[in-house]
Specification:
By secondary structure, the chain is an alpha/beta fold. It is 39% helix and 16% strand. Bound molecules: ligand 4FV. The site of ligand 4FV has 16 residues, from strand 5.
C-alpha cells in the first residue's frame, strides 16, 4: 500500500515514519509513505500557496493551482490511487472506514492549512472527504497521520505474526478486554486468576465477557448493529436477571 501525502509541512511526517511498527512496515515494504511538498508546485518565485478569500473574511485560503498540480503529479505516479481530502466536513473516520481503505490500490492524502483549500479542488479533484472528528485542527496533517497509522495496521505483514488486527477493539466490534503483564501483584492489585490458569477456553470466555461488560458500560451504541453469539446473549440475559434480582430486592423491600 502506498500513501502519498500532499502537504506544505512534509517534515511533520518524519517522526511517524521513523519509529515502531510503521518504520518496520516501510523497511519490510509492506507500505510506503511519500510526503510531497505542495509548495514545490507553486509557479511564482515566492512559491505562494495561499491567498486572501474572495468575499472577504479572516484568514487565508489555499490556492487551487499548486494543489491541483500536486494531485495530478501523485495520480500519475500512482494510477488508481484513491484521493482523500482531510476536512471536518468529511465522512467520520473509524475502524470500518479504515478496513475499506486498506484494500485500495493506493491512497493520496490532501492536507489543508489556513481556513482550508479552494472549493474547486474538492469539487473536481477529490474522491472523498474524510474527518477524524468534530473539532478544528490547524492543518490536515495530524488527520492524515491518523489515517496512515490506522490503515497501515491492517496491511498484511505490518503487525508481526504474533498480532492479528482481527482481535482489535472495533475489529471485533467490541471494546478490547483488559490486558495484564508481570508482576502478578502490583501495589496490592493482582492479575485475575483465570489468566494464570492456562485454561485457554476459560480465558477466551473471560475476555469476551469482560469486553461485553466494558462495551455495555462505555459504548452500548457499538452493540446495536454488532453480530453477537448465542453465548453473548445468554451471558447478557444472566446479567439482566441478576440485575433484576438486585433491583427487586432493593425496591420491593422499602
Ligand atoms: C480536520 C478534521 C480539520 C480544517 C481547516 C485544517 C482543518 C484546516 N481534518 N478531520 N477535523 N482540518 O480540522 O480532518 O485547514
Amino acid at each position: 500500500m502506498n500513501f502519498t501525502v500532499l502537504t506544505i509541512f512534509p517534515e511533520m511526517f518524519s517522526a511517524l515514519l521513523g519509529v515502531g511498527v510503521i518504520k518496520r512496515a516501510i523497511e519490510r515494504q509492506h507500505i510506503s509513505v511519500e510526503p510531497i511538498n505542495i509548495r514545490d508546485f507553486a509557479k511564482d518565485r515566492h512559491r505562494t500557496v495561499d491567498d486572501r478569500p474572495y468575499g472577504g473574511g479572516c484568514g487565508m485560503v489555499m490556492k487551487p493551482e499548486p494543489v491541483a498540480e500536486a494531485i495530478r503529479h501523485a495520480r500519475k505516479k500512482h494510477p488508481g490511487a484513491y484521493t482523500l481530502l482531510l476536512t471536518p466536513q468529511g465522512r467520520l473516520f473509524n475502524q470500518r472506514v479504515a478496513q475499506e481503505l486498506a484494500v485500495c490500490a493506493g491512497i493520496i492524502l490532501v492536507c489543508g492549512r489556513y481556513e482550508g483549500i479552494d472549493e474547486r479542488i474538492r469539487e473536481h479533484l477529490v474522491d472523498e472527504e474524510l474527518s477524524i472528528g468534530d473539532y478544528v485542527l490547524t492543518g490536515g496533517e495530524v488527520a492524515a497521520m491518523v489515517v496512515i497509522d490506522t490503515v497501515s495496521r491492517l496491511i498484511p505483514g505490518t503487525l508481526g505474526s504474533e498480532h492479528s488486527a482481527q482481535e482489535d477493539s472495533f475489529s471485533t466490534g467490541l471494546l478490547e478486554y483488559p490486558q495484564y503483564t508481570r508482576p502478578r501483584s502490583f501495589e496490592e492489585a493482582n492479575v485475575p486468576e483465570v489468566l494464570l490458569s492456562g485454561d485457554h477456553g476459560a480465558i477466551r470466555q473471560w475476555r469476551r465477557q469482560t469486553s461485553l461488560i466494558r462495551t455495555i458500560l462505555k459504548r452500548p451504541d457499538l452493540l446495536m448493529d454488532q453480530p453477537l453469539t448465542t453465548g453473548d446473549i445468554e451471558f447478557m440475559k444472566k446479567l439482566r436477571q441478576d440485575m433484576k434480582t438486585i433491583i427487586d430486592k432493593h425496591t420491593t423491600a422499602s
